[in-house]
Design goal:
This protein is an alpha/beta fold. The chain is built from 7 helices and 5 strands. The mean pLDDT is 93.
Length: 169
């Protein structure tokens, strides 16, 4: 509470924490403050390898060192994670991560080589749809698909695409 305050807008965690850990947090926090502890709980499904849950206790956790040793960055990993809905079990593979890395590379190539980071006013229609996707239970796969639709949209000029990508962050 000293760091985050007495109330949180969003609290995340794994689905395995719902019945024990999170209920304990709610009971303790609300008993002390008399206020609703969290507005939105976002419980993520498991990340698996070969259909088996990844975890430190299981002994199959993947660290940044593992990723870096194979030529991947944190951005590559984050992009790959965002291509799946947080409440969907995702099976990790090096091939899937490689595909995510390649997609992110293509996106950066558009931004830095094709658009040359020269932006203008973003396209409001795409931004509204993007926000709608994120507001719909944090539909990051839908938001990323929409982003790629915008990149491929021949009706938009490169400056508008650049500005829209920057607004999408």
């Amino acid at each position: 509470m000293a760091t985050l305050g007495k109330q949180l807008d969003i609290h995340t965690g794994g689905i395995d924490h719902i019945s024990t850990h999170h209920n304990a947090e709610i009971a303790q926090s609300e008993a002390v403050t008399g206020k609703t502890f969290v507005k939105y709980w976002m419980h993520g499904a498991f990340l698996t390898i070969d259909k088996s849950r990844i975890g430190k206790s299981v002994g199959n956790a993947i660290t940044m060192r593992h990723l870096a040793d194979r030529g991947f960055t944190g951005d590559d990993y984050r992009y790959w994670l965002l291509t799946a809905h947080y409440r969907t079990t995702v099976d990790f593979s090096w091939d899937a991560l490689k595909a995510g890395k390649q997609a992110l590379f293509r996106l950066k190539r558009h931004m830095y080589e094709e658009y040359k980071q020269k932006s203008s006013t973003p396209d409001t229609a795409y931004l509204e749809k993007f926000d709608e996707r994120l507001a719909d239970d944090l539909d990051t796969p839908g938001a990323i698909a929409l982003m790629w639709d915008m990149v491929k949209d021949s009706k938009l000029d490169n400056k508008t695409k650049c500005g829209t990508l920057m607004a999408m962050d």
